[in-house]
């Protein structure tokens, strides 16, 4: 404790007596005293992981101070047990089924082809969507739902049913890609910050704090305004604002794992830091991050839709759900309700399903939470 | 959001780009197209074949194998533009000669693309619209003159043609009307051969009002003067309300940003102040210059005009209008952002006495009478006693009352206005206060009108205007306006440097579909850059390129 | 550690974040394409000398770092400069919008607590029962509904179709009955997702309290269930929820940007979107910075409040 200035120390607050013990036994190297400065960060994480119900800042936080590393999710039996718990969770399975169904519909909506050097490789020949989503005037413009066009048509006579199906490709892939890329930034930075501590930690976490001072959408608007709209620009904006949560969460977890005797021992034996982080620290700390990431797929899709609504998402013609909704702003008043309702329902359904899955993953990864609670 | 580029003075001298939203560009229904909607399939087919042949020629000359890849752009804020750009994209891709992508940019980025496209040799087709005023010079000068290559004007694709420059220059430096008509005719033909850009549609202004509140409305054709029909003695117009309504509530599409004439750069601010400020002359609803603060004027020689000024005119702050006000008001433009409004032609003023003055021009200037009517402001504005940006003060029939940033802008009747009444217009406006509520979302404007929160709307989208047109509750008043939508070619780049390619594409443009589908049948298909509003100058009436 | 020392320490850590926030704000705004002078002169052929003098008037001719320092210096004295686009002072422009956003934010915040706390309690008490399920599904629905979509639908149904509320804000002072009535829909729209979050937090924190020894003890001693709930469990779990709710400012501001667009609400969010499209740099900077500072300060306050409530936070040494 003596090697750090109070203002730069980051640790964890131990609230349960158990931690006091840990503090007493590891006074030197281990950052056992959770710094007060982290209180807000952790509550912020709490807020981000809106639906992660059981991780409250006060008292509720299950500490992992002296836990057995073998019980982490990196362990095979742990994974199996988790999957077992997940499988017995009906609502989570239902959510998973919806996500799977939407993904399959999006994938098989239109054939997938890759063209390179004059050759066209058809990866996926099926076409569930009755029309090409970008084909103009396959029906009258702004027609309501009918047999030929179950969801009606938009201003240019494009088939909305086909567009909603294919639109899943954008929304789902944006959600998945943005979260994956954000994880790729957040996990290493969070692990490094938590593992090494000191000025590295300080720098990374101050950066995180600074970015956190800007509400997500405000920052994303600024980034899209600079880069312009477009698929990859949208993803960049979502990643820049998205990695913060993961970094912060993982860092918190890592801090508690670094304290364990096992990691201490590995260090003493001269195992390279990279190996310790990669083999022992991250796998054991990643559980909450996975939960968060699952839930974030939903919020990322919502955020992309909100940007689309503000005219800062994808190009207007794109069959992305949020972008289709942006057109619906005036359609609703003009009586073309279907233009607004169906893409809106698609977003709603997907985000709802993701949240159901997220809940399931939360419960599955942390068996302790199941005690005293029935199947959720 | 509204048009926020350039000036839109009542006697608009300058052009401005329609950046955002629907401001202004709303067309009129029932106007038949000139390229033969009755022509039938065969004629269309023939046009298409000849168009494709032209493009193929160009491709062969440039050694390009179709399909040629390019991108068409629109800006995110303008819904109609996004839609017509997509229609063009679709039409070009149908020929298999092009592989056109579509991209949409936020206005700031779009602006940069426009300004730098030629510099960076961007492979792009760009969609835009432009509004101007009562003189043809406004439209052609900035778009086509080689001296106005972006960023010093709207000649975005750096088109440079000596003959074009010559025609533009000689027409503006000519005050004989017949001579000018002839020159602009030649210019339009030249441009139709060269096709540096393709004009697609000429626009329209429309106001939708609630019949129960408003009897009748007359639309001023140019943006920036939407509320003039409330009381325009110069044009013989005033508003008679149904019930004894003394308050009129309308909308504005964007916030009022700056109301100082020498800094004003958006149409909303123009609109908000057009009943506050008056100039020497005003251009009436048909485009004829009329006396306003001047009672009479004459051209003494090529570069000198003499004005008799109106007596007994009082400013809202109590000052009495004299010739000094004119000189001071013109002088304020020097070094200001709006400097070219006046200093393009202004050399000086000789004050003869309080009610008579001579304006000297730097050279003969054709559009003088439609340009001279810049707002005359009190001397207190020059002394810095009042800040016109916060509180506009003029001589008009309404004075500034209240401004709630982002909410509304309110005008109150000025009881000491100079007009004494005549056969057509009473001495006093019937409407006591005019409230312009700032509603930036088009859908919300319509909703507000339908919910009886507005008496009239000047900023409805074309779709909404068409929708409400049949409804007996609403009156719809339209007027062809001085604006047009156009497509800019990257004529600095192969194969677009070939005039055949540009002409081919020009013929393929689905003008009729754009007018009907995107603009709900409002506006007219257009081919030349001088809109039909200026009927005397425009040679509109057929595709001169064929 | 004393509360004073803790306060000082905590406030100190906000300083680098604050500096970072100003730099980021400035950087983002100036990275955006577009030149305000171009906008000002309407892209016309203005005399280069005029252009240069306008540029100098707004310090746009200086190197970026100098502009940044000048800006920070002014901002430190709450001087936000003059907007080149409107020619008006930025401070009053922003200040005029601020009350609207605050009013909307505060009412949505209160509504979310008013819905979320009881719903969470009921769900926790009824663990696994039908009320729990209903609140859980309700919360999920609230989270999954895009707020702009909800706003549009509400506005359409209650404003346009039924005519119960106005579709644009009334021409009345902010603190008036008319305005309060108009604010109902935007408040609901903004509060929905927040209420869902609060419900879930409340439920879990209450649940945990209920499982604690002292609650079981109290029950064993035969205290009435009501007393147990209200006196013990609720109080402890409320502190948690309220402090977390304090952090919702970021969520509120995010929501406000969108909701203000839907309801034509003249707040900061609308000003931000407008100013971005007008290239009104000083206004964008002021708004973004204000939002960032509000977030930082809110975090700070919540932290301090938290430390007062729970002294273990600052037991540090």
Automatic annotation (TrEMBL), chain A:
Q: Which domain of life is it from?
A: Archaea
Keyword presence, Transmembrane: yes
Q: Which residues form a coiled coil?
A: none
Q: Which UniProt keywords apply?
A: Cell membrane, Membrane, Transmembrane, Transmembrane helix, Transport
What's the main place this protein lives? Answer: membrane
**Record field: transmembrane:** 91-109, 170-198, 210-232, 289-314, 335-357
Q: Provide the membrane topology annotation.
A: Multi-pass membrane protein
Give the matching SUPFAM superfamilies: MetI-like
Write out the GO cellular component annotations. plasma membrane
A single Gene Ontology biological process assigned to it is: transmembrane transport
Q: A Pfam family for this UniProt protein?
A: BPD_transp_1
Stretches with biased composition (Basic and acidic residues): 35-53
Name its cellular compartments. Answer: Cell membrane
Does the record bear Magnesium in its keywords?
no
Domain named ABC transmembrane type-1 is located at 168-358
Positions of the UniProt region annotated as Disordered: 28-73
InterPro entries tied to this protein = BP-dependent_transpt_permease, MetI-like, MetI-like_sf, OppC_N
Family matches, as PANTHER family = D,D-DIPEPTIDE TRANSPORT SYSTEM PERMEASE PROTEIN DDPC-RELATED, OLIGOPEPTIDE TRANSPORT SYSTEM PERMEASE PROTEIN APPC
**What family does the database annotate?**
Belongs to the binding-protein-dependent transport system permease family.
Write the protein's name: ABC transporter permease
Automatic annotation (TrEMBL), chain B:
Q: Which residues form the Solute-binding protein family domain?
A: 289-537
Q: Which GO terms describe its biological process?
A: peptide transport
Q: Output the Gene Ontology terms for molecular function.
A: peptide transmembrane transporter activity
Q: Which Pfam families match?
A: SBP_bac_5 (PF00496)
Q: Which InterPro entries match?
A: SBP_5, SBP_5_dom
Q: What is this protein called?
A: ABC transporter substrate-binding protein
Q: What is the lineage of its organism?
A: Archaea, Methanobacteriati, Methanobacteriota, Stenosarchaea group, Halobacteria
From TrEMBL, chain C:
Instruction: Please cite one Gene Ontology biological process associated with this protein.
Output: transmembrane transport
Q: Does the keyword Transmembrane helix apply?
A: yes
Give any Gene Ontology cellular component.
Answer: plasma membrane
Q: How does it sit in the membrane?
A: Multi-pass membrane protein
Q: Has UniProt tagged this entry with the keyword DNA-binding?
A: no
> What Gene3D superfamilies has UniProt attached to this entry?
MetI-like (1.10.3720.10)
Classify the main location. Answer: membrane
**Where does this polypeptide localize?**
Cell membrane
Q: What is this protein called?
A: ABC transporter permease
